[in-house]
Amino acid sequence: MMVNNVTKKEGTMAEMHPYHALNVDSIPVPAAIIDVNNPSYIEENEEWRGIILKEDNLLSKIIEEEDYSIRLNHQPYGFKRKRLDESKVLVMMIPKGMKREDSSHSQSAVYESLIHNTPTCVCIIDKNGKVMEMNHSFQKLFHISDAILGEPLCKQQPLENESFISIVMNGLKGLNTTGEEVTFDMENQRKITCNITISPANYKSDGTVDSVGIILHDITEKKKYENELMSLKVELENTLRLQKTITYKIKKSNHDFVIEMAAGELLKKLNLTPSKVIGKTIQEVFDSHHLGKIQPKLKRIWETGEELTYEDEYKELEYLASIVPVLRHGTVVEIIVSISDISLIKDIQRKLIESEQKYKSIVKYSPDNIYMVDTMGVIQEVNPAVKTQWDHISPQMIGSHFSEFIARGSRETAIKQFEVALRGEASRFVTTFENGEGGKSHVAVTNIPIRVKNEVIGIYGFGQDITEKLKMEEELKEAKELLEAYFEHAGDGIALLDPEGNVLKVNQQFESMFGWSKDEITGEVITFLHQEEQVGQFKQNLATVKAGKRIKDYETVRYRKDGSPVEIAFNMNPILNDNGRLIGISAIIRDLSEKKRNEDLLKKSEQLAMIGQLAAGVAHEIRNPLTTLKGFLQLMKENAEDDFYLGVIQGELDRIEIITNEFLALAKPRAVKFSLTSLTTLLTSSVEFIKMECLKQGVDVRFSVEEAEIYCDSHQMKQVILNVMKNALEAMPSGGLLSVQLEKDEGYGKITIQDNGNGIPPERMKHLGEPFYSTKEKGTGLGLMICQKIIKEHHGSLSIQSNVSEGTTVTILLPISKEK
Question: Does the predicted model carry a pTM greater than 0.85?
């Protein structure tokens, strides 16, 4: 039989194990087993079930008519029968006149099965670059469907890649490519990088490439491949048993060989009949070319009496010839020649070899480590990737147990996963390989059971070295943690926005600065910090950043959750992806409140210094002539009959004197004498002093004090209190309520002086305490400045709060003496 001539290398990864039981599912044509005694189907394959749906009363017609045939899709089909026992018959539907090309569907089935079950993304293209086959992983990775079958691969999105096209063109020229990395642009701005291996999968007789195999990145599960090979083997054996044959009986007459008997349906395939060949010499039946091959064989067998089996081809018929001499008394008297059509078998063999070559090409050029172990865990074979990556240990791997090359801490898990695969289940895990000279590699392993007749006979291991990947992930994790720490603990407020200005994330300083928690504002437009009139400016800033520009040190005012303003400076920077597309905005915000306060203090200090210098000069130049004017004015009043105008002049001169004295108070450091003073007594005497003025203006006084002692200059402190109360009275020209209160507050004496006058507008509040600025028509602003100066020299503080139409409250804090 031909199968004896099919040789296989021991230990190869595609080694086959033949089936011995008949199984109609393994027959590549429509087939069924029928019960002829009790007409019924015992078993049928999928192809046969499809025929039943198209042909009525098929069973009865087959049983009743020996040469029954049908026509489907313009193709005639006959039925081949083989009796299995007394009642069971195997029936197969065979195309009439089928040539070798007609079995191309077997190649397609094997080819497709290999591609769709390989663990790596695989695509096969023909010599024109058109897609012949592709697996699910390939389709899933590139989001493409079967609609591209037969279309040029390199014209499909996202495979229109210049580097990829160049590699594919080299493959079509017969050049192998291994380990080339190509980055593809996917949908939604996503990119993937693939490790590309391209190898010509088949060659024509003239040496040109017929098809090219493309491997992208990883080899995955190939366990179904062995089953496909087994199916091909079953097809080969079953087909061999059921082939039509020719049987010749040949005798020698004189020097010629004459055909005495010819039988078999295979004669029809050669357009012969028994009547055309019986009684003819072989010279009359066969052409000269074929005669030159068979005549020497017949002569040798007639002379030696040896049997001969050989394969040959005649009129496009591939056949297996078995020549058996018939001996009588040790002499050959006739020769029986049995011819079997093995065209289909040869096609299957060629496709089997082609599939095995394609499979080996994938394994050979795969960038992943592939190894095969038997059921005992002993390594039988490894691919070139293993030898390249683990060159220190690969010579020792064949014949060794796989666990010898796994780090001790990982062996138990690896053995357990091996046992899972032995039970027929694929398993995936990460382990650590000891790769020689003390080095270690982290490997993602996939174990695929190898099945023959539903029995696991070994395991394929697919290992992907992820050492660099894990290292990179760890570095990325550390970098992320570092960035998170910087983000959360930065001294400035940071907000990450999407391109439309919606908040994605804020840090702790941002929450503290503005009073909102991240949960409250995530997903909201950041204009919650703005007042209505500021939204237009924000949109302009957003457009600037979208245009790829930065906004640096922009000073403005934004508003807290409670509505209070905060002066800030911010930077807005675009965040771009690798394509230069805006994917976000970073806003870094610095609180300028403290800086502004310091600037105001510096400004006031400079003003005080200037006023001090001015006051010294003015007081010196004005005071002496002022004294002279007042003296002469007094003499004039004594001689004048009407002193109204002189009284006005006297009042204005008195005002000039007061201003001059205020200048002197600022310009010259006074000799102050600090002593332990009862703040209660001081405040009480001041209230008593001003009560008369309160009665004149219709102002009621509410007075409440606690006992408190401070170190102070009593004259200066009384000056401050009276000045503040005088300002309060002037704010209530039509009457009102003056409230004066003294209480202890955490080590300070707290004096609160409150009126219910007209109050001070916010735009004027911020200028209080500046020289020459006053809320009074003829005020200089120096009085409040002097009060603040005195309180500061006493290590206290003076603050003012005012609301329009509600009044003003002045709070003075002075440290209480700790002496008992």
Answer: no
